[in-house]
Amino acid sequence: xxxxxxxxxxxxxxxDHRRLGYLSAAISLWARGSxxxxxxxxxxxxxxSVMLAAAQSLPQRRTCVVLGSGLLRDVPLDxxxxxxxxxxxxxxxxLWPARLKALRYRNVQLLELDLTGxxxxxxxxxxxxxxxxxxxxxxxxxxxxISATCLSQLPLGPEAVGARRSARLPQLPKDLSRQxxxxxxxxxxxxxxxxxxxxxxxxxxxxxxxxxIEGEDLLEGVSLPAPDxxxxxxxxxxxxxxRDEELVHPVRGYLDFRVARRRG
Length: 264
Ligand SMILES: C[S@@+](CC[C@H](N)C(=O)[O-])C[C@H]1O[C@@H](n2cnc3c(N)ncnc32)[C@H](O)[C@@H]1O
Description:
Blueprint: H1 2-10, H2 15-19, H3 22-35, H4 37-56, E1 63-67, H5 77-83, E2 86-91, H6 96-103, E3 108-112, H7 119-122, H8 134-137, E4 142-148, H9 156-163, H10 176-189, E5 194-200, E6 202-207, E7 212-217, E8 229-236, E9 245-254, H11 257-263
Parallel strand pairs: 1-2, 1-4, 2-3, 4-5
Antiparallel strand pairs: 5-9, 6-7, 6-9, 8-9
Bound molecules: S-adenosylmethionine.
């Protein structure tokens, strides 16, 4: 608890993003990640290996952009920093453990950006989405873009704001979450370079006997093409969420998302 308060006080984070709950969400994710370190390690190794395979298959490696870099738990930063001339880590908030890690590399930079383009809309200052990645579209040095296990997380902040929305704010689109997911996938496909995607797709509640007793789509009905790799992420092992139930997320990895989309 003390560590969480400490992060709250010392993390550089835009006031808008603090108001929208992103800093608190990042701190809770850090706390859960620390508690579940062992259970998450296979998932993190799988995610890193997809990202690395995508990077190694490229003919040239100038800039790599990592979207949803977060705590750099599932991002092979050491290897990406050696392989590329520069690495840009993008997230709405970077906590100090990630900042300190990034500081070790001269060619790694951080960018704090709302990847949903909804901040102004949620705060009642705009009627529609902004295009957060537009500034990267012209950068022809980008050889690899990685969407790093952030797709399913992107609607969570806006959904929480929508749920506690004040009457003064304009009505939010009914299918806001679905739009956020679709827009992210379309926006990354407009960027230069190879697109690598790692994303969880569902949350399943499992009993100790392995029976799935509940399931929920995390992608709001947006269907994804067949992945190159698939695995299970035990997000909340037994005892974390309930004594006799665990929450697991199926995860998909795409080495080249455009090619996967064309495959259908
Ligand atoms: C499951 S975590 C990703 C884990 C990360 N790849 C790592 O290695 O630690 C999801 C990430 O999405 C980020 N995120 C959520 N909403 C965002 C938004 N609107 N804009 C940018 N990043 C966002 C969170 O801050 C978090 O770091």
